[in-house]
Amino acid sequence: MGIDGGAAVAESLLASGRGSGKLSLPLLQSKMKCDPEGYESELLLLYNQFNSSLDLFQKQADMNFTSISGIGSDRTVAKDLGDRASFLSHVTPFYPKQLADFPQKLADLLRGAARTLPSGLRCNLTQALILLSNRKIVDIGETLALFMELQTLGDRTLKKLAFDHVVHSIRRMNQKHKNEAKNRVLQNILFDILRKEDEEPAKRALVTLCELHRRKVWFDERTANAICTASFHQSSRIMIAALSFLLDYEKIQEDDDSDDSSNDDETTESPQVALSKETIYKASHQGTAASKKKKKAKLERAIRSMKRKQRLSSEKSNNSYYSPLNHLKDAQGFAEKLFDRLKICNERFEIKMMILKLIARTIGLHRLIVIEFYPFLEKYIQPHQRDITNLLAAVVQACHDMVPPDAVEPLFKQIVNRFVHDRSRPEAITVGINAVREICMRMPLLMNEDLLQDLALYKKSREKAVSVSARSLIGLFREVCPSLLVKKDRGRPIDPKAKPKAFGDVNVATDVPGAELLRIIDNDDEQESGDSDDSASDSDQENDLMSINDDDSDDENQLCSDGTGSDDDEAEGDESSDDKVGISDADDDIEDSEQQADSEDGDDTEDDDGNVMSKSTLEDSRKKRKLPDFNGQLIAGDTSLRALKKLAGTKMGDVLPEPEDGILSNEDFQRIKKLKAKREAKNALAQQGLKVPSSDQLSLKRVDGAMLEAHVRKKLNKEERLALVRAGREERGKYYARTAVKQNKTGGLSNRQKEHKKKMPLAAKRDKVARGRIEKKKKNSRSGKQFRGRKAWKQ
Q1: 10 Å Cβ neighbour count for 271?
Q2: Cα separations (Å) of 771 from 92, 298, 365, 774, 779?
Q3: CA-based nearest residue to 230, from 183, 255, 279, 196
Q4: pLDDT tier at 634, thresholds 50, 70, 90
């Protein structure tokens, strides 16, 4: 505090009739807050002193009355100015009319002479302006450009102070609800600074945008596109900062402070796994101990894989998996422009690798087609190339099923020829085969039969890493295309005729995903109700047919039997058509072949009564039995609703079980979710070996160069094993036998001993004795029935 300022205020207080033994500005500040109206004269006096100090300071600046330390060689003037500015900023909310122009004067002083002010005074004035902004006296939109400029003055303390204020002010502004209009104004200010050629202001604007985007304050397309566009800046420092943020965004850990306070109320649902009771029962009760152990292990693996899939799908649906590259408005143009800059880039190799990895990540994420990118990578594919694993990881990320195989085939062959050969080191062979596996997982059409069989021979290598990588490649093609493998390498694939989709082949969803599951359930319900109706109608039909004359009874019974038989056959065909397609055609072929074989055996056959039937009569009877009888179907249609539907030509197989308005309800979607979980559980239990992810999952997957290297745990020697054993014994106490512990026990009796000495009621004693007698009687009766053989001494 200034001594002269305190003395002047003390004199003014004495003149007004108020005594003060020892007065300071903080004490006066607290009194003004308690009684603003009573101290208005003192406020005006201090405000006039601030104005005079400000005029004196500006005159010193105009006269260039400076020293080595800067303007203000008279330190008392700078100190008084800082103290009064801090004092007035604290009492401004209590005197809004008297100090209306004070915030503007403070901002103008910082805006005009911030570079020439002493460091202490500059920090005091900035803190005073921040205090006014926090109390919403000054708007952040008016001072944002000023605070961004203060970060470029080279003062580390001031830079941190201004940066934290900008970030916290924008966070606090968007904490309850987002004001899009105000956010757009602030974003435009930062975007304009970022587009400037001046390096330092643009760098601070980029850092501010990245911090707000990382904290999910400005989590929109405009901010993401501005950060991505910063990778084209003329300054290499800004370009490197933007590239680092975009590449390492997925590795950034969220802060544990109040940033996540908005996410505390969100409850994350644990993934649900629907397993049938039969599967759980078989895993726990059926089979030997070894088989049950295997079944339980398989069940646990299936549950883990299903939970992982559900977690990934929920993350994808909830957009928790996120990268700023997802919001690119023109991803193709961004990748091509960045690739053009890479071709003329003269930076060091690390910067080129960052640009290359960003291009590959963009191509894989948006499934772009940049044909020139793959021949450009060929010159870097060498085993001795620096950072080769990350380079191969970029190659893998740039491959997807929408790229023509002809464009990637030269690069693919170069990886195989340079890395996988007999004279190459085991580490290079491992990296090469792993890279081939990851590329073939995305583009299986690149692999041919001869190359795959040659690579499969490395499974016999003495190097464990090489053999493991070769077996993983074999496991992939067991699922993707088993026909490329030799017979002994195919194993037991689920689909022996599986083949990869042709180039450009895409599965397009025409209905609501999972709606066919509802149709299957509804068909099952209709079949159950139809069976019950058929049974009731058959009994009624038999009662009606009993009253028909004897002359017509044979024909009508024949018609009825034919009709009902055809219905049953069709019902069985409908039930089996869900599992096996085309089985009716096979039955027809078998029946035709049987007819041909019977006709070749002999022209005449005997019926049940022993009468000889000619070939023509036999064929006529078979045709009559094979062709549908219209009258019989009409009679059966009177009693069976399901047969009437089939007769009218209504087929419910291809029609969705939608409600009358054609819109699925929320209950239907919940049923679809549960049925999908059951189907995934069934498929996971039935599936064996490698589980190949879909193309969408592969495009979102981040490929790390470390996963292409060999990760084989070496066998521990004796010293290392003993060290692990000793480390496990540190927390364990000394071993004592159980009998020794019981003998040395110094406490009371055990619970079992206490039960023997417990006094029981008379009724409980009688009940215990009665139960003992019954159990003894049952035991004796069971032992008496068992024949244990005659004793030798009784014979």
Answers
A1: 16
A2: 90, 45, 74, 5, 12
A3: 196
A4: very low
φ, ψ for residue 613, nearest 5 deg: -110, 140
Question: Which token pair is 540?
Answer: 């009624």
Residues 324, 224 contacting (CB under 8 angstroms): yes
Q: How many C-beta neighbours within 10 Å does residue 324 have?
A: 21
DSSP assignment string, 411-461: HHHHHHHHHSSTTS-HHHHHHHHHHHHHHHHH-GGG--HHHHHHHHGGGG-
Q: What is the DSSP letter of 99?
A: T
What's the Rg (C-alpha) of the chain?
43
At residue 777, the 3 state secondary structure works out as: helix
Write out the two tokens for 391.
């380079």
Q: 75-91 vs 3-15: helix axis angle to the nearest 10?
A: 50
Q: How many CB atoms lie within 10 A of CB 80?
A: 22
Q: Cα–Cα distance between 114 and 102 in angstroms, integer?
A: 17
CA dist 364 and 142 (Å) reads 42
Average pLDDT over the chain reads: 74
Q: Is 702 exposed, middle or buried (0-12, 13-18, 19+ CB in 10 A)?
A: middle
> Residue 712's closest CA among 465, 533, 473, 376?
465
**For 744-749, which contacts have Cβ atoms below 8 Å and span 24 or more sequence positions?**
none
Q: Confirm if 331 and 402 have CB atoms less than 8 A apart.
A: no
User: Which helix (DSSP H) or strand (DSSP E) does residue 612 occupy?
Assistant: strand 612-613
Return the closest-CA partner of residue 106 out of 120, 86, 91, 77. 86
The amino acid at residue 646 is K
> How, if at all, do strands 605-606 and 612-613 pair?
antiparallel
Residue labelled with tokens 């071993």: 735
Buried b (16+ CB within 10 A) or exposed e, 382-400: eeeeeebbbbbbbbbbbbb
Over the stretch 52-106, which tens digit does the pLDDT of each residue have? Answer: 888 877 777 666 544 444 444 567 777 888 888 888 888 888 888 888 888 888 8
DSSP annotation of 70 reads B
